[in-house]
Design brief:
43% helix; 316 residues
Length: 316
């Protein structure tokens, strides 16, 4: 039971037995609604910018957990400095290197808020990010995750390109059709800045073995059974630079390797949901994507990378 005092400034939560009471201010209760989860590994270059963007949110009743995955630079020191100044910030340090998605899974299991926002160390949340996505969650209560449009920036923070900013809301109905669309289109969502219901994230974890494609695999699994929603407003800046993991994955073709794994596994698991023609289309698209990478590496004289990409064409 919940009783509100006559003054309206505190709430009393009483256990079912009626023998335990705990006073909780409305602010404390609301703060349990959303936690921001920021995994970091050797992210000192942009970490302060990312943390400052959280501090600039118009919705202020958040909790932030920074999870350091064994950084060798000053990332942990930077996070601790922010935590010392703001009680809403907690810093965790992994006992071993879990990898990006392993860190997210482990940290999410310790969070008890209604929602989790996953936020990458290189990126920037624009000031109304939390408020807009929480408002959307209040409107579309059955969705398990919500994400927004984005603006791509370079290493210096200069604009590269941006998604539309129309305010349009698209609710994606779950089922085979949504799953098949995402399997063909690639990863339709941006994990950095995504608002996810905590209970669902604890149940449907990211695959820690897919260091690059775990977000795509996760949204494919979700799309078959649960609704999700996209808000066409630019609420997050995604930084593209040569030092990030995705750039390294490109050079060693890790993204293509995991792309191939996800396609093969999902088609194998749900073979009865698509016909022979559809299977041919997705396999042809996969091979075309690999061939383009071979040519890209060859044009840039990355012969070893081109050779390893070529092998993906002939190896199952």
């Amino acid at each position: 039971a919940i009783k509100v005092s006559p003054e309206g400034d505190t709430a009393i939560k009483v256990s079912p037995e009626g023998d335990t009471e705990k006073r909780v201010s409305p602010e404390e209760d609301t703060a349990k609604r959303v936690s921001i989860l920021l995994p970091t590994y050797n992210g000192e270059r942009y970490l302060s910018v990312a943390l400052d963007s959280v501090l600039s949110q118009t919705f202020t009743l958040w909790q932030l957990t920074v999870v350091d995955d064994g950084s060798l630079d000053k990332s942990l020191d930077i996070a601790n400095q922010y935590a010392a100044k703001d009680a809403r910030i907690t810093v965790r340090s992994n006992r071993k290197n879990f990898g990006l998605y392993g860190s997210i899974n482990d940290a999410a299991s310790k969070i008890d808020s209604e929602f989790i926002v996953i936020f990458m160390q290189d990126d920037v949340l624009l000031p109304t990010h939390l408020q807009c996505l929480l408002d959307l969650a209040d409107r579309l209560t059955k969705c398990q995750t919500y994400w927004s449009g984005s603006q791509m920036i370079d290493a210096q923070g200069l604009d590269l390109h941006a998604s539309p900013d129309s305010g349009r809301v698209e609710e994606i109905t779950p089922g085979v059709k949504a799953w098949w669309h995402i399997l063909q289109a690639g990863c339709i969502w941006i994990i950095s800045g995504a608002l996810i219901r905590t209970d669902y994230l604890k149940k449907e974890r990211f695959r820690a073995d897919l260091s690059h494609a775990a977000d795509w695999d996760w949204i494919l699994r979700l799309a078959r059974t649960e609704p999700c929603a996209y808000l066409e407003n630019r609420l997050v800046q995604i930084r593209l630079h040569t030092e990030q993991a995705s750039s390294r994955n490109f050079l060693v073709n890790r993204d293509l390797i995991q792309y191939k794994i996800v396609v093969n596994e999902h088609i194998g698991k749900h073979a009865n949901d698509i016909g022979i023609t559809d299977k041919f289309k997705i396999m042809f698209k996969m091979r075309t994507r690999i061939l383009r990478r071979v040519l890209r590496h060859a044009i840039d004289f990355r012969w070893a990378s081109a050779w390893w990409a070529f092998k993906l064409l002939v190896v199952k």
